[in-house]
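To: structure subgroup
Subject: Chain for Friday's discussion

All,

I'm putting the inputs and outputs inline so they're searchable in the archive.
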Amino acid sequence: MILDRLENASSYATLGGRIAQALLAMGSDFVERPDGRYQIDGDHLVAIVQSYVPKPASEGRFEAHRRYIDLQYLVSGSELMRVAPVRLLVERQAYDADSDVIFFDSPAERAGADLWVEAGMFAIFFPHDGHMPSLYDGRSDYVKKVVFKIEA
């Protein structure tokens, strides 16, 4: 898991490949586009622009992906993102290969760590990172985000 600000994105260029391509795209016109799914490199790198009202933590659930790495970039607003290693989570719903997602419950004693993310920040979640994004942080009632799906 990586958490940082847009102005530091060039520090991660050594990750190379599609991750570097997604980091470069964060500062592009995707932030101005309407909600929707946009292919950058076929199904290998996709940007999903979304706008929403963050939800209470009680409505969240951990998720992870096997085919894609998530790079979540906040364009406006702020939210909490909870993160925990997949190995500590309890499978709630079996992996769905079509949507590349598996959902988890978390034992109360291992609820994960909360990350506060505001506009201009990004988080990268790898397949071993369980994550629960889009949580209300008590500050922002509206979020615009671009999620880059990067083939692992």
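Points worth raising on Friday:
The chain has a mean pLDDT of 93.
The radius of gyration is 15 Å.

D.
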